[in-house]
Design a protein that fits this description.
With 382 residues, the protein is an all-alpha fold. The protein has 18 helices and no strands.
Length: 382
């Protein structure tokens, strides 16, 4: 007795058992080809989990995993291929499935920077700068030069100590070009307008006037710069926790950035106005544009982006070329080089040039910040 059906004798009809045995199976197609069964991992998240295991093991919360996935190019559309509606829900599953070292996680939480001590450190540069300006104004001759040099060195030390803590703390990698460009821009804000005005008039024959209000106002503006940066980080983190997608977070973080910039402008304008009333100067636009430029550059550096170096370098080179063109115009046959800058100074004043240069650079950095600070990966360590 066999299970293989055979033709019945005398042409009798086949039985039902024979028809069932010869019927095509689901694995066979109607054209005689065998249909390949669909293959794929029953758990599509497993490969992603192994690929980013180190990220998941050291993550403090699912938001850090979401930010890390986004930094590696995983988008909401990519998450859909892993059967998740967005990157955040995918990160929640990875956070739940990958075991973590509780001691490492708790240590990471304890080592997070606290927002208590740095709030008063933001006032240190302003106080040091005000003392340095008073020392310069109360002295004369060679002692004034010594007082100015000591005050400038003290201001650099105060800025360094202040920016090493708090929300404007940048990464450990040094950026000498950015620091050099920022130092030149600050130096030009203090004495560049006076030098340019004297150069257009044919000088300088000796010293030229400095602007203590710009130096003091910008130094005191470090405090609102740190407070606004902290506010932006905290609010962005909250929006990241309540958002359910990268697109939603980007749409909510950009208005927050613009509102924070406007708030910093109010604090900066207040510091500059008080300094101008104290020292009797009226240069405002150039110092305000420079303050916004330096704050945006430091905010990008604090969130892990160093693209502001080129913008700072371009602004510094533009100011340096303006001065160089005026002095080069005194050479025989080169008078045309200095005429554009001289026309600007004679029409709008010496402060118009740095205001235009720093204002354009600040707008470029604002566009850059609106693009990169809308990413979840920019706030994973905040």
């Amino acid at each position: 007795m066999t299970d293989i059906p055979s033709a019945p004798a005398a042409g009798a009809a086949w039985g039902a058992r024979s028809k069932d045995a010869l019927a095509p199976t689901p694995a066979q197609s109607g054209t005689g080809r065998t249909a390949t069964p669909r293959r794929g991992p029953a758990d599509p998240v497993r490969a992603l989990m192994h690929r980013h295991r180190e990220l998941c093991e050291r993550a403090v919360d699912p938001l850090e995993i979401a930010a890390g996935l986004e930094a590696h190019g995983v988008t909401d559309r990519t998450a859909a291929r892993f059967r998740h509606r967005d990157v955040f829900s995918l990160a929640e599953e990875l956070y739940a499935r990958v075991p973590r070292d509780t001691e490492t996680t708790s240590a990471a939480r304890e080592s997070a920077p606290q927002s208590v001590g740095w709030a008063l450190w933001g006032l240190l540069p302003g106080v040091v700068c005000a003392l340095a300006v008073e020392g310069v104004q109360l002295t004369a001759g060679g002692i004034r030069l010594v007082a100015g040099a000591v005050g400038a060195a003290a201001l650099v030390v105060a800025l360094t100590l202040t920016l090493r803590r708090g929300p404007l703390r940048a990464g450990p990698r040094p950026r000498p070009v950015a620091r050099l460009c920022a130092a030149w821009l600050m130096a030009y804000a203090i004495g560049g307008d006076g030098l340019l005005a004297e150069a257009v008039r044919g000088g300088p024959d000796g010293g030229w006037p400095l602007d203590p209000a710009a130096a003091t106002g910008l130094a005191f503006a470090v405090a609102p710069a740190m407070w606004c940066a902290h506010l932006f980080s905290v609010q962005a983190r909250r929006k990241l926790e309540s958002s359910r997608g990268l697109v939603e977070f980007a749409g909510r973080s950009r208005p927050l950035l613009l509102a924070t910039v406007a708030l910093f402008l109010v604090g900066l304008a207040t510091c500059l106005t008080v300094a101008q009333l104290a020292y009797g100067t009226d240069a405002f636009a150039a110092a305000a544009a420079l303050g916004v430029l330096l704050w945006l550059a430091r905010l990008l550096a604090a969130h892990g982006f160093d693209g502001a170096t080129k913008v700072l370098a371009a602004a510094a080179v533009a100011e340096l070329l303006a001065l160089a063109c005026v002095f080069a115009g005194r050479l025989p046959g080169c008078a045309a080089l200095g005429r554009p800058v001289e026309a600007v100074v004679q029409t709008w004043g010496a402060g118009a040039l740095p205001a235009a240069v720093c204002g354009a650079a600040a707008l470029a950095l604002l566009a850059r910040a609106a693009a990169v600070l809308a990413r979840a990966s920019a706030h994973c360590d905040q």
